[in-house]
Prior knowledge:
The structure holds three protein chains of three kinds.
Chain A: H1 8-28, H2 37-56, H3 64-88, H4 104-107
Chain B: H1 29-33, H2 38-66, H3 76-95, H4 98-111, H5 120-142, H6 156-160, H7 165-192, H8 205-237, H9 250-284, H10 291-304, H11 320-348, H12 357-380, H13 382-388, H14 392-422, H15 428-455, H16 469-499
Helix pairs in contact in B: 2-3, 2-4, 2-5, 2-16, 4-7, 4-8, 4-14, 5-7, 7-8, 8-9, 8-10, 9-11, 9-12, 9-14, 10-11, 11-12, 12-14, 12-15, 14-15, 15-16
Chain C: H1 4-11, H2 24-59, H3 61-69, H4 73-98, H5 103-134, H6 156-189, H7 199-223
Amino acid sequence: MSAHLVPVKTYVGVFLVLMVLTGLTTGVAFIDLHAWNTPVALAIAVVKMVLVVLFFMHVKYSPSLTKMVIVAGFFFLALLVAFTLADELTRIWSPQVHGWSILLPILQGRF
Amino acid sequence: MSTTVIAEIPGHELPSEERVNYLTVDHSVKSWLLTHDHKRIALLYLISITLMFFVGGFFAVLMRLNLIEPTGLVAPETYNKLFSMHGIIMVFFFLVPSIPATLGNFLVPMMIGARDLAFPRINLLSWYIYIVGAAFTMYAVISGGVDTGWTFYTPYSSTFSHSQVIPAAVGVFVTGFSSILTGLNFIVTIHKMRAPGLTWFRLPLFIWAMYATSVIFILGTPVIAITLFLLGLERLLHIGIFDPAIGGDPILFQHMFWFYSHPAVYIMILPGMGVMSELITAFSRKRIFGYTFVAFSSLAIAVISFLVWGHHMFVTGQSVYAGLIFSVLSFMVAIPSAIKVFNWTATLYKGSISYEAPMLYALGFIGLFTMGGLTGLFLASLATDVHLNGTYFIVAHFHYIMVGGAVMAYLGGLHFWWPKITGRLYPDGWARFAALVIFVGFNLTFFPQFVLGYLGMPRRYAVYPGEFQVLNVMSSAGASILGVGYIIPLVYFIWSFKYGPIAGPNPWGAKGLEWTTPSPPPTENFEEVPIVTEQAYNYAGTSESAHG
Amino acid sequence: MADMATHNAHHAQHDAFQHQFEDMEQQRDAGTFGMWVFLAQEIMFFGGIFAAYIVYRALFHDSFEIGSNLLNVKFGAANTVVLIASSLTMALAIHAAQAGKKGKTQVMYLLLTVLLGVIFLAVKFTFEWTADYHEHLIPGFGFIIRPEWGAAGSHVPMFFSFYFFMTGLHALHMIVGIPIILIIAVMAWRNKFDEVYHAPLEMVGLYWHFVDIVWIFLFPLLYLVGGRYLSNGGH
Lengths: 111, 548, 235
């Protein structure tokens, strides 16, 4: 069983959309959207990736096992990023450890 | 036709025809070094891994000798190298590949009724990659050693150590790809090449375990590869990714390192659990209790193992909030392991149990793995971990699982499938004796270490306060017994190649497709593709059977 | 002994048939699935360094913005166009085989893919990296922290460490991929691939598209940090 034959038109169409999106992401970068620049750029990148995966890599016509492998890969990467950030970004919240010395002023009657 | 020379043992006849099998089909060195046969590749791995085991064991011997005296025997700088190289070799070059590359390579195609793995040439390539990685690491050993610990923590490894960090890191990096290719091969083979009628829930549990292990190989190993790559670059170019002086975070190294290395410990135990399911059922002559639970618990362990790595970092400066999350998840990861232990025990209940050597190893596993696992709970709990981290309690904990668990399972599996692999039997009396020696030696070596750790003796120290000497001497004495215990099987296994009684296709009367082939099997495994119609472990005896 | 009838039946399958499989269908299925499993591994390989990048970008955003603005967006965007085009030509090469077109058509598309890949690497190495070297922006090779970067300057080398490592690792994957495509092109020239058998083409295609996807993320993550609005001297 050969894979489903995707017409050349589809490939070229996807390519053109990818070109537009590339232009879009480059162009938007020259506009000041403050904190939104990064999420917009990433969103465009995700759309481009999905197009390449579904059409150039034929995943639209592939068995669901293939889709599961892709999802698994990204899921575990997300775990790595999420749990590492959970540490890196919350360290400043960690309680300061003072030990018994914090009681010294009280014990010495200096309050 | 084969011209195998077999010594005649009284009472055991030669086969009525001289069969060609995968061992005798071609004797040339080239046919071994360029083989595509998964069974031959398994043996190539067996030889290399056994060599590395004894090299790693050699370093352990030196360590235990050093620890007989509180003032030590070797310089602390040397001792640092001893425990580092012991760890690196035992973890990456013995434990991680042990069951998958030897028993897995041999048995996965046979258990599913296939002629070989999906990608035989990639299988061979994985062995050569392993050898190259081992060569780099041996170079590191003989050119001065590495002293960072197997954990390569920065900034010591990236900035301050004067030892052979880069060759060792390259060795581990390269060998990682050997694991990745093995895992890839297993996943594709198990998905795509099962015999007709062999649905997922008819698979032997060893296959489920190999599958779960392979998932960890694929998803975890690349991360340590990139981490060691970064470490090497940092060491070479001083670029400051992990160097606090330039804004780097040494804890980030630990995150990336343990993201693989925690699942790696499940790579080391899951195959052993797979072997356990095979041994317990065969020697109780009873279907496994709770097959579905055991199968899913393997997958659960593989997934949850990726969520707990921070428990290695509770006291290194990680955020307390991350610590809380990792602690809760670490308690959860114990559950599927406990489910397995429960199911094995329930399988034993009213089984028709016999005590050949493989079963002795299996029974030892249940007890020792349970102890190791329970002590893990003390370490998963943040508060007690503060006291126990960095002490011999940790050393004892992981050795109970890695040696009392994984190595015992590996030996049990070797003893169980040896007749299939070689067509020979080994002397069961000696085998049982060796199993007992190993059990006694193991406990004498490592139980005192729980006490030492609780009392506060730090790990990775070349010297220690005098009050710990008695326990250390006990541990070293145990190590010598354990060493002897490991050498005995080496002797009788090699002996059996030439002098062991010829084994039939199924000396244990066990269920499984591998036992339907001759011992040793022909190169293509099966003359005709088997068709599977029954569930796994379909032992005839019910729980009321009186056969012993 | 292997059953001779089965043995002969296997050989009747195809020249490229491998005997551990039952038929060409299973062989192709296993091959493409194997490549996907390999790509899952690659997601984690690149993912590891992406994760480290994300951490440091969160911690040192200002420094990363400065570094990013020193990269050449025009070259980066042009390279993105080139690489996506090479994915198109790769897809068309496979399409040619699937549609039963002559080997020469497949070879043409494969060579175009290689050409575009080489252009990408040429732009990267001879234009971008060479300029960076002369501007003292390569950590470990005479990096100079410029006073105009201010307080955030001390972490700008960190950005460039990631820039060179990530784009270098990506380039390495292309350097490995190009010879493999050429080998496949030789096979295509010899008319090995048709509508029945083209699994190696598909597998190489999957790899190449993956390399394209990595760049699709690298471009915005490295070149477009903090935006390029002209007010901050973007160029």
